[in-house]
Amino acid sequence: MRVLPLLLLFVPTPALSARPLTMEQSVTLALEHSPRLIEGRAEAASAQARWEGADLPLQSNPQLQAAVGPRLRDEGDTLELNVGISQQLEIFGQRRARKDAARAATEASRFRLESLQVELAADVRQAFGRALASEQALRLSEDALGLAEEGRKVAKERLEAGAASHIEMNIATVERGRALQEKVRATRLRHQALAELKLLLGMDPNEDITLEHALRTEVTPQPALSVLVERASGQRQDVKAARAEWEAARAELRFASRDALPRPSVGLAYGREENDTIIQGTINIDLPVFNRNQAERGASVARERRAQQRLAATERFVRAEVELALSRYQSAQAAAELFDAEVLAALQENLNLVTEAYRAGKVDSLQLLIIRREALDGRRGYIEALEELNTAHAQFLKVMGTLR
What we know:
- The chain is α+β, with helices and mostly antiparallel strands.
- It has a single domain (23-400), classed as Outer membrane efflux proteins (OEP) (Up-down Bundle), CATH 1.20.1600.10.
- 65% of the residues lie in helices and 12% in strands.
- It is built from nine helices and eight strands.
- The chain has helices at 23-33, 38-54, 94-160, 166-201, 225-235, 237-258, 294-337, 341-359, 365-400, and strands at 2-3, 19-21, 63-71, 78-88, 209-211, 218-219, 265-273, 276-284.
- The strands form three sheets. Strands 3-4-7-8 form a four-stranded antiparallel sheet, with no helix packed on it. It has a two-stranded antiparallel sheet with strand order 1-6.
- A hairpin with a 2-residue loop joins β7 (265-273) and β8.
- α2 runs antiparallel to α3 and α7 runs antiparallel to α9.
- The longest helix has 67 residues, at 94-160.
- It is elongated.
């Protein structure tokens, strides 16, 4: 296991009033407060409630019937009373099919919520990495401005001593203006990156935060692509959700077929007739002669076919997504490793040497400018390489379906 070097990249000292945050703390905070999960949580809660409703042993309430009135006769009127209660029953597997459909739909909604959480975690890691990179870019712009101001000061001293021309002084002035412009740009990008991160975390935009982390990652060997694809297929939440949706669609199709079958109602009736008491058992059966649930059965067939095709498509995408993410991650690792400690140290040494040489009049302003920009571009390239490595790692975790 190797850790990429962090030469010239240091974590800033936290402000006393700022809230310190690490990358993993930010992920946890987003999973708790991000508004992006509100709809997913509501859908999961609704599906759970529907499952609990489908689990009821009896789906309909008892029905009470009552009739009272006089019986008119020549011999004399009498009061007749009839009272009955009945309950509809599901005896052809409707309840089981309904429960299976509701259970699978609940699992699908839960997996979709987990998939949203994985996507959110990846977005937070990328936003956190951008914010870190923007902070380092801002510090780099401040260093560049300091070097430009020092170069302008030396150029002025050389001009006053007759060792430099006005052209050299103008070059130093232009370079200072360029460095000022870059600092303004870096400041704006840092504010934008922090604002985007706070939005993902569901934080108050005015709350101050300090990022306690560094743009680095541990480089570890990855298994073969086939192993990663198999692992992703087994643990990715979108694949699990697609499987659950297919299972729910098949259960709904079974329910639609069974829903066309009769649902008998059994009951008990009590009556008073001519001063006699009558107690009877009752049964009512609806006859599916005209409406045999044709429309719902047809719609269920279409939903089942769509769910099956969606599952197949999702499973096909897994390999392509894992392959692309792995390739990007490996390329980012290779690019970041180019900036090893020796390269960065050489750039910094050249920067120090050329500055002293220019002060001593051993190099001209053009050589100073070239070497200085080369050193600063090297540091900037290192920041960009580590940001890309962080982004590639976040995307790799996302396609593998893992939060950590």
